Amino acid sequence: MVREGTTIVLDHELRLNFAAIEKPHPGGGNPAVVTVVCLLDGVPIGHLKWTPHDDGELTHVFVDDHVRRRRIATTLWEVAHEVAVLNGWTPPQHSGHRSLEGYLWARAVGGDLPEPKEPLRPWDEWGQS
Question: For the domain 6-93, what is the CATH superfamily, name and number?
Answer without folding.
Answer: Gcn5-related N-acetyltransferase (GNAT) (3.40.630.30)
